[in-house]
Amino acid sequence: MEKAVYYSKAAEGPENGSAYWIHAKDNVRLRAGLWKTGQACKGTVFLFPGRTEYIELWGRTAADLDRLGYTAFAIDWRGQGLADRVTGDRKTGHVKRFSEFQMDAAAMFEAAEKLNLPKPWYLIGHSMGACIGFRALTEGLPVSACAFTAPMFGIKLSLIERMAAWPLTWAAQALGRGHIYAPGYTGQTYVLGSAFEGNKLTNDPDMYQHWVSQALSLSELQIGGPSMGWLFQALRETRSLSGVASPQIPCISFCGDQDQIVDIPAIQNRMERWPGGSLALIQNAKHALFAERAEVRERVFAQIDRLF
Questions:
Q1: Which helix (DSSP H) or strand (DSSP E) does residue 297 occupy?
Q2: Distance (Å, rounded) from C-alpha 49 to C-alpha 128?
Q3: 3-state secondary structure of 153
Q4: Whole-number average pLDDT of the chain
């Protein structure tokens, strides 16, 4: 595998971080980031990021995992970070079909085999990454346990918004306009258009500023709002997955009680139907739990470490 660009200073991850170019079976080029722990290794944690995210945003999380004794391995999904973009407008958060992300996940695990990453293997998925991870688990993803933060098992929409979203996004795709932005969104990166006060991601000002600093210094890695096609595919995938049985694998999901992005009742419903699964609803926390206040992060990592 060829070494890829990795912005270590911005990432603030473990010192030995590196990145590789990998390819999905449809030849889309992706980027994978690796942080090998310097501790007595407990195994490898595969990090499945959320929409808009990229390897460097997970540097601090990799550092926390390193302190616990885990190697961390992350990915830039197609259309994000330095992976191949799938529309002419590089700022559009777009995917043709959610099933394409499964090719990305497969490429990541093939790379892990080539790199001989230490086992056992575990999965942490955030938001959209948890949705991708859940589908992969049902198809036999080779991990021993998993943890999800703010899993996108449903998108938080009002009844009117949901009733409008289905026909609008379906029509956009049918008319070849799936690549245009969903209503209310532009190509602006969220943290550059939203002040800390009232933001939907975190209650921690330092973590929010860390995201802002990366958005300013790593502009080529950023994307903006979702496309009509992404929204249609996300609604379709979450509806499909709602009828799928939970896999026989230990799992814990975390969700902040102030989350305004994912559908908390859908998460509760899923975890109630997960044998050996549990849900931790975190008080006074928003969507990005790994970017929350220190006491929240410490609680989440402690519970994940116990599960793994």
A1: helix 294-307
A2: 7
A3: coil
A4: 96
**Helix axes 264-272 and 228-242, enclosed angle (nearest 10):** 30
Distances (CA, A) of 27 to 30, 71, 79, 107: 9, 27, 13, 10
Q: Would you say the C-alpha torsion 271, 272, 273, 275 has a positive or negative sign? A: positive
Nearest to 1 by CA among 102, 106, 80, 112: 112
> In terms of Cα–Cα distance, which of 127, 125, 166 is closest to 146?
125
The arithmetic mean of pLDDT across residues 222-231, rounded, is 96
Q: How many helices (H) and strands (E) does the chain have?
A: 10, 9
State which H helix or E strand residue 102 sits in. Answer: helix 100-114
Instruction: Work out whether strand 145-149 and strand 251-256 pair parallel, antiparallel, or are unpaired.
Output: parallel
* pTM for the full predicted model: 0.96
Residue with tokens 């170019």: 21
What residues are paired with 146 via a beta bridge? 123, 251
- CA 140, CA 121: separation in Å to the nearest integer? 13
pLDDT in tens, 67-85: 999 999 999 999 999 999 9
Please state whether beta strands 29-35 and 70-76 pair in parallel, antiparallel, or not at all (unpaired). antiparallel
Cβ–Cβ < 8 Å for 54, 35 = no
Report d(CA 224, CA 289) in Å as an integer.
Answer: 21
Residue-wise pLDDT for 90-118, tens only, equals 999 999 999 999 999 999 999 999 999 99
* CA 81 from centroid of its chain's CA atoms: 12
CA distance 11 to 9: 6
Answer yes or no: are the C-beta atoms of 33 and 6 closer than 8 Å.
yes
Helix 228-242 crosses helix 159-174 at what angle (to 10 degrees)? 120
Beta strands in 39-108 (DSSP E): 43-48, 70-76
**CA neighbours within 13 Å on the CB side: how many for 143?**
32
Phi first, then psi: what are they for 19, rounded to 5°?
A: -140, 155
Which SS3 state, helix, strand or coil, does residue 172 take?
helix
